[in-house]
Amino acid sequence: MVVIGYIRVSTEGQVEDGVSLDAQREKIEAWAKLHDETEIVIYKDAGISGASMDQRPGLQDALREACKRRAALVVYSLSRLARSTRDTLSISDRLAKSGAELVSLSERIDTTSASGKMVFRLLAVLAEFERDQISERTRAAMAHMRRSGRRISRFAPYGWDFDGVGETLVANLDEQRVVVRMVELRAQGRSFQAIADQLNDESVPTKQGVHKWSAKVVWTSLQRRRPLAA
Question: Are 82 and 63 in contact (CB under 8 A)?
């Protein structure tokens, strides 16, 4: 198997880690020698931050070559490859779909072996768990803000306006009356489209006032409605 090495340092990274381009290169070449690989191609990004994958030409070249040749992409550490788990997993998926492999020497991740694949999959599960926890916390925080009448989106829900500061919802009584009518019409068995047609026939303005009512707009308005405070 061909070895495609990727090495990178940024100004801060080299000072903090003390791992120069030459040191990374030596580690990759030693791994290739240990595995009896004779063809080694090294790509590098010198003095480039790892924040954005798209702005690292050396990484893009290494990925293309590894995928094209179904090679092993070898890095000194995952921190040299990507700054986030999501980017790392994205790179790994791209390599796997092309029949290429990923090796990170510091973390001892080697997808050329069965045990290496297992370790990487465990990391992927943990990363997914972490993302799910963040999503749960975000949903809980937004629900709390919604119950508290705090702003959570660019537009106020139908029946409400933002206060002068733009952070808290205040009732729009005209729109609230329309919301009550929607609820009553739904209780009578009217479809969302039938409600929209009736509002349009009566020239009831939408929130923005420039669009007509549709089944989707009615549904959204009812989904986002909030009860008035007692």
Answer: no
